[in-house]
Amino acid sequence: MNKKVAIVSLGCAKNQVDAEMLLFTLKQRGFELVGEAENADAVIVNTCGFIDSAKQESIDEIIELGTLKHEGKIKAIIVTGCLAERYQDEITKQLYEIDAAVGIGANAQIADIVESVLSDGDKIEIFPDKLSLPLEGGRVQSTPFYTAFLKIAEGCDNKCTFCAIPMIRGKFRSRKIEDLIEEAKKLAENGVRELNVIAQDTTRYGEDLYGKPSLDKLLTELCKIGGLHWIRVLYCYPDSITDELIDVMAREDKIVKYIDLPLQHCNSEILHRMHRRGDRESLTALLNKIRDKIPNVIFRSTFITGFPGETEEQFEELAEFAKEINFQRLGCFAYSQEEGTPAAKMPNQLDDDVKQRRADIIMEHQQTVMANYCDSLIGTKIEVLVEGFDRIAECWYGRTYADAPEVDGCVFFTADEKPQIGSFVTVEVTDSMGCDPIGAATR
Fold first, then answer.
1. How far is the C-alpha of 309 from the C-alpha of 298, rounded, in Å?
2. How many helices and strands in the chain, by DSSP H and E?
3. Phi and psi dihedrals of 17, rounded to 5?
4. Per-residue pLDDT tens digits for 342-372
5. Alpha-helical segments (H) within 52-121
6. Is the pTM of this model over 0.90?
């Protein structure tokens, strides 16, 4: 009987792609992949270790699996991903439930590790060079069949002072265009209609391989692939938004007019201490330039409130910036003091309640912005990617180009004829529910 393995993947979409590659490696070795942890012999937890809330989620998952192990329902717990990589000297000492702690550089060895833990009962700690993390390899797609993530690079060189990613994931490494096109073609052949391009910083793509940012060239080639209907670009860095990139996003119909720009702040002093460039004036100019060239563009961004030394006046500048730009999609997070980062050692750390109060103020206003955007759609016809049927609401639901998977909202709609999951329909918006449009499919 084949040994059964389940994977619990936490955190970002980039981590999810790593998990899909782990699943492929295990399947190739002959392990049986199961969806529920309690049905597995071994459970792999692909952890997130970015900020406190994400770390706690990973820890809670390991402890919960430890209960299943104590009850005899599973035999082994293997922990990999960012939490394991970041806390390799502590993780097994703090979490005794773990049978194997595995750095990301050992992902290619995952089948051997699972086999050893299950067959020999070995306790394993293995942390090779993080740059050994494979960039290429097969995947077992874990997203719905019609949507997938394409990870175009690994690691980060930006060295923002608040961020632990460079020390966890290593230096920025791009994948070759030809390898990415081959993978995207396979995804399209398997029914993927929406391709979400991701990296820690997608706009830096190609600098290490081709000597200059080459996301525009990659996107141009991706748009030639038959079957793909939407191509979405996530996690852009404002410094690397080139005219060529803006032009290709404006020109190519397959590229959805949606740009994710995690700006973090707009005050020049705060940005300088974050080791980021720019100020309110330059960021406003960039966003206006994009809006001029790409009509109806949707901006998503993230802000950090309560960065060390942030004054009330600097926070107010950020709040005013948010109101001025009117981001249709925005997340705001209280600063998390992450050990090992330069910002963690900065003076004038703010109280947690101050940081959170400022984030709440931003998000309270953002609810109004999103509701107003939703209301602006009433009376219009929008293209919707069908994702399922809501039995409670007794209607269908899906996403527009303005809604990235798993992070943005939905459209709820009725239909005279049953639409296919993964198809695109036109919906006439008649009302709204909170920040979600409501309508009816048209023929």
1. 31
2. 14, 19
3. -65, -40
4. 999 999 999 999 999 999 999 999 999 999 9
5. 52-70, 82-86, 91-94, 110-120
6. yes
